[in-house]
Each structure stands twice: as C-alpha cells, then as structure tokens.
C-alpha cells in the first residue's frame, strides 16, 4: 500500500469499535459513533473505505438511521467504498443498502478475518477506480494547458503528441488566440529536445530590417552600431526548438533566406562569411491563409512546402460546441486560485451569453473578458451584464431554438439523474453514461451545484 487508506468505522458499540481498530492494522482508522459524526468525518476525510453499522442510535434495532447515514456519507464522499454491517439475517436492509450505493454488506457477528478480506478487496477496487478516473481526466485534457472537449481540437492534440518526437517541421494554423503557442511548446516538451531551449520569435512584431539580424545574428562591424558579434535566434535555439510565430508576415526577402536555412541547415551571420551548421527543430504558426498568399505572390510556395511538412489546424472557439463554457469555467477556477478567492459562478444567462458570442479573439479574448468580469462582479455570481459581451443581433434564431431544446433536455436528464441517485455524483454520472468531470461541468452550466 503506498499511503494508508482512510477507513471510517461507524459503530456505536465502543467495544466493537476497539476490536475493529485492531483488525485493520495498516489503515488510517477514523472512528465515528453516530450518524452526525460519520457525516462530518466523511466530509473532512473523504475516506476511501467505510465500515458502517446499520443499527445506529437513537434506534439501534432499526436500520433507518444507518441507511440515512449511508446516503449522507456517500453524498460527502461519493467514491468511498462502503461496507455495511447488518444484524444477523437482515438481508432485506443489506440489499436496500447496496441499492443505495453501498459496495457490499456483512452480517454480524463479526469475523475479523473475513471482514479484513472484504475491506482489502474494496481498497484494491478503490485504487483501480481512482487510477481510471485519473486517466479519464488526463484524456479530457491531453496536453498540459490546452483545454478542450471538442473532437476536432482533441484530434489536433493527438497529432501533436504523434509528431512531436519526429524532427519534422510543423505548421500550426488557427485564428489568433486559439492556442498555437501552447501547442508549439507542447511539440517541444514532448520531443527529445525538451532539455534544450525553446526560442520564440514573432515575425509580425519586429520591423523587417531588424528581423534579419534577430534571426541570423551579425558579426562585429556588419553595420553601423554592430559593435560586437551577436548570435541570432536560430543559432541560439541550437539543439532545441525554434518557434516562428506569424510566419505569414515574414517579408519576401527573408523568406528566401529562411528557405535556404531550412534546405541546408546552415546559416551565415550578417557580415560573416563562415557558414555555421545549426541543428534546430522548427515550428511555425500563422493565422493567415498561406494558400491565398501564395496565389497573390505574398508567400513563396517552395517555402510553404518546407514549413508545412506537417500542417495542423486548430478550430476556432465558435466551431467547438461546448468549449467556450468549458474554458470559461476553467478560467474562473484559475483566477480563483490565483487570487485565493472563492470560485465565482456563472448565472444561466451568463452561460447563454458565452455560448451565443462568436469569440473572434478566441481564448485570449475570453481570458480578458473573464478577468474583467471577476473584478466587476460583486458577490459570488457573474451575471451576463458583467461579461459585457455584444452578442450580434438576429441570425441564429433557428439554431438558438434547437439549442434551447437541447439544453432543456440536457438539464432535465441531469436533474432526474441527480434526484434518482439522491445527489450521489458517481451514480448519477453512471445513469447518464458520462464521466464525473463531465457531470460536474453540466452541473456548473445549470448552476446545480
Ligand atoms: N485551448 C486552450 N485552453 C486553455 N488556454 C488556452 C487555449 N487556447 C488558448 N489559450 C490561452 O489563450 C492565450 C492565447 O494563446 P496562444 O498565445 O497560444 O494563442 P496563439 O494562437 O498563439 O495566438 P496569437 O496568434 O494571437 O499569438 C494564452 O494565454 C493561452 O494560455
């Protein structure tokens, strides 16, 4: 056992409590003597395992207090494996308990060895399930920092994982703020070059005459003011990854020089004669339509084939249904953590506004909007007004009606599953055939938490 599992023992008989404590050497025992205590301790420890005597005070002869405790404990710690201990031959209540979400039952009188076996097995199952949950959560966000549940965007993430280890040049296409830089960094991190430098340069942000020396470096005396030899970004990235952002904005003169570098893998510093071999992985990004630029003579076709050995297109937020709200919630979590404040909730109208807005600036724009809303909103809720989004008029009425219908159906399914499982998240998720994180996201969306 890696760390000791918490075992909550709910048993009003002090002697039995003591006896059980000795059987479960190796577990972190948390004793409780009645329902209220059991629930409070379940909340505090979220124990992996619970042994629950169904006959609890004030009426130990009757299982009702124990069954109520079971439900409340599971509401606090939905993943817990609860084993109920029933009176001799009380099969009816044992089955009731299992129907309410108990993992198993055991009849008194207690035989320590058998009970220990049962608890050990439950512990194993718990850790298997925990591992599964961890893996499921990972696959929801396959690349660190890149959030999405959209099949198209997730496909791009999988491609990034696949191509990262190869040295091929990658072109990332996508509107501004769609996470091109995050994915470029992921390519680097998942490659054999991760220990070396990741060097980023934005071709649109630097004037043409400076860009050349930024990229290639220069020798002393190469031009007025060049008073010492300076290494360019390409050389600086040697052994690592060079990220050329906004490659579509690279002037034609430099396109020719870059092409030569990509073909020969050597550079010459400005004013220098020596050609220097450089081993770098190149990742490029652009929000422009390079094919159209090629037709208009603004981008070299031969360079395009060099930089686009692998081309990945990140879909914009408005084409990823559900992602806007998912990302908004994740940002609220992040800002709450950063500012050590309780997490704000979005009102249903705010969620509607987020879904209806086209997000031309994608996640970057959303970061700004949410950050501002957190500052502007008073109280725990963020209302649609706090977001101050200008939702375009008209247009999507049919789409909206369909969306309303879908939302309503979704809402009803979630509410019914939650009430049927009496608020037990794991059970409700099971009924709906979705994972717990997805259910939590839906509950947030409908403000059901
Ligand atoms: N899928 C995502 N999940 C979480 N954060 C994201 C996602 N996409 C983008 N971001 C965030 O949005 C901001 C912009 O992302 P990034 O700089 O990678 O976009 P970009 O496509 O390179 O934008 P630009 O073309 O404007 O430079 C960053 O703060 C990034 O963390």
Automatic annotation (TrEMBL):
InterPro entries: AAA+_ATPase, AAA_lid_NorR, CheY-like_superfamily, Homeodomain-like_sf, HTH_Fis, P-loop_NTPase, PEP-CTERM_resp_reg, Sig_transdc_resp-reg_receiver
Domain Sigma-54 factor interaction: 146-375
PANTHER family (alphabetical): ALGINATE BIOSYNTHESIS TRANSCRIPTIONAL REGULATORY PROTEIN ALGB, TRANSCRIPTIONAL REGULATORY PROTEIN
Ranges for domain Response regulatory: 6-123
Keywords assigned by UniProt, alphabetized: ATP-binding, Nucleotide-binding, Phosphoprotein, Transcription, Transcription regulation
PROSITE patterns listed in its UniProt record: RESPONSE_REGULATORY (PS50110), SIGMA54_INTERACT_1 (PS00675), SIGMA54_INTERACT_2 (PS00676), SIGMA54_INTERACT_4 (PS50045)
Keyword Zinc set for record: no
Pfam families from the UniProt entry: AAA_lid_14 (PF25601), HTH_8 (PF02954), Response_reg (PF00072), Sigma54_activat (PF00158)
Superkingdom in the source lineage: Bacteria
CDD domains: AAA
GO molecular function: ATP binding; sequence-specific DNA binding
Name this protein carries in UniProt: Two component, sigma54 specific, transcriptional regulator, Fis family
4-aspartylphosphate sites (modified residues): 53
Single Gene Ontology BP annotation: phosphorelay signal transduction system
